[in-house]
């Protein structure tokens, strides 16, 4: 479907936009994670294996689209998108380890510790996390040191003990808890920290790059927060209903591990309704950006329609 000017509407344009963004981010990662020779070669190979060659790149896409609202340079936005994807990749490499989720498949290929070994996977994750901040600190990311510092501060908050790492700890504690101990509020907080905070920062990062007014920063962050919550419910729905062939990773593992999820607490139908409500709330936060935010609106709807 097209509008009156013959331009594809956002929902129809989204798949191509996601694909183009993923390709651009992959190219940026290829440059920022170069192949190495000598003693470090195996480490770089594992870093590239964990970070490249697959994934939706939704977090990176959020950076690029957020930056587009403020006409930020594409090269700067790609550096930030790549840095966030490095942090996301590090979390997946570590989550897949035997001491965590003990997974053998990720993005349709063996997990990093299966392709290499556990020690190398741990070091690759450590290196991806550290290198992400090196990228954000570079002058090519932004000429203003204050902007670079703000990006570093916000990413460290999103990824640290009050963010992604804290969420992983809560996840481990929840697995060891007595059956029935989880509540909708406790699961929601776990998912906000483990998944939502990094998505929230990804949505806000473009506004930081563009030195946007605080109201616009808050609007994009709120959009990201609602999107992240909907994304996690959608992930739980996929784990319960999709096949490994569709998702590229093992499914049914939440039920197998006895892990509490909103899908488990609410049931499939109520969880879907809640995800749909979150998507509508996310869209409301974009109203001040007009048609320019069309792809972000379309992404919110896609989040709960996807099958991978």
Automatic annotation (TrEMBL):
UniProt-listed SUPFAM superfamilies: Terpenoid synthases
Q: Which Pfam families match?
A: polyprenyl_synt
Its needed co-factors are: Mg(2+)
Please provide one cellular component term from the Gene Ontology annotations of this protein.
cytoplasm
Keyword Transferase set for record: yes
Family label: Belongs to the FPP/GGPP synthase family.
What name goes with this protein? Polyprenyl synthetase family protein
Originating organism: Roseomonas acroporae
